[in-house]
Amino acid sequence: MDRRRLEEKIFHGLCLLAILIGMAMLAVLLINILSDGIQRVNWSFLTSFPSRHPEEAGIKAALFGSIFVVGLAGILAFTFGVGAAIYLEEYAAHNWFARIIQVNIANLAGVPSIVYGILGLEIFVRFLEMGKSVLAGSLTLALLVLPIVIIASEEAIRAVPPSIREGGYALGATRWQAIWRLVLPQAFPGILTGVILAVSRAVGETAPLIVMGALTFVPFTPDGPMSRFTVLPIQIFNWVSRPQEGFHEAAAAGIIVLLVVLLSMNALAVLLRNRFQKRLEG
């Protein structure tokens, strides 16, 4: 027993040490980024297009491109992911075939993002002839986050007590009425949290969009689903690869904006989850 307690203490100590080291490294990285780029974050930087001159470069095209691409990808992932979760949890037979599908979905969640970029390049850009457009990029990112949305939605639906469904059936509700009126409202906070966190991952993805041909220098904003585009991570990557110090400062400022967007989306997920949970409890 003493040896077991000692091993647990050592394990907990190592975990705490790893957390402290990770937090220290993150703090150093944030301090470095803030010291390099905080002075560049202003209204002109947010509303200016990229430029060959570092002091005039901005992120307007990349910011609007990220909003277009990630927004459309989130709508697609939410629609198909929640629909697939409802089917798998409420309609599909729980047999060996369903278990195979579940395992494959879990495996797809761990596939490297660049593989989805190759898939998007072959299917959406070339086979379906969408070109290197906003729609092709959105579909590629939707495929990337779709397994995460499905898994999160399944867990949220599975957490709803069976007694709620049975009560609806006892009152004469059909299966769909019970799902729509009873199950989904209970599961919606968990579903919404999973969707927003999945979309937060899509905001920071670079490799799949580079593979499918997103531009690195865009002096315009997207005007439709078939327009060419760039996104914030690609713009930051482009600036970091430049030798001029001014572009490195612009890249640091772009990272700050990207971090603000990601943290805002995560905070929104927490607030919405708490709000819906309070509404259900009330």
TrEMBL record:
Main subcellular location: membrane
Keywords, alphabetical: Cell membrane, Membrane, Transmembrane, Transmembrane helix, Transport
Topology relative to the membrane: Multi-pass membrane protein
GO molecular function: phosphate transmembrane transporter activity
ABC transmembrane type-1 domain segment(s): 63-269
InterPro entries according to UniProt: DUF3333, MetI-like, MetI-like_sf, Phosphate_PstA
UniProt-listed Pfam families: BPD_transp_1, DUF3333
Subcellular location(s) per record: Cell membrane
GO cellular component, one term: plasma membrane
Transmembrane segments: 12-34, 61-88, 108-128, 134-157, 178-199, 250-272
GO biological process: phosphate ion transmembrane transport
Superkingdom field: Eukaryota
Family note: Belongs to the binding-protein-dependent transport system permease family. CysTW subfamily.
Name assigned to this protein: Probable ABC transporter permease protein YqgI
High-level lineage: Eukaryota, Metazoa, Porifera, Demospongiae, Heteroscleromorpha
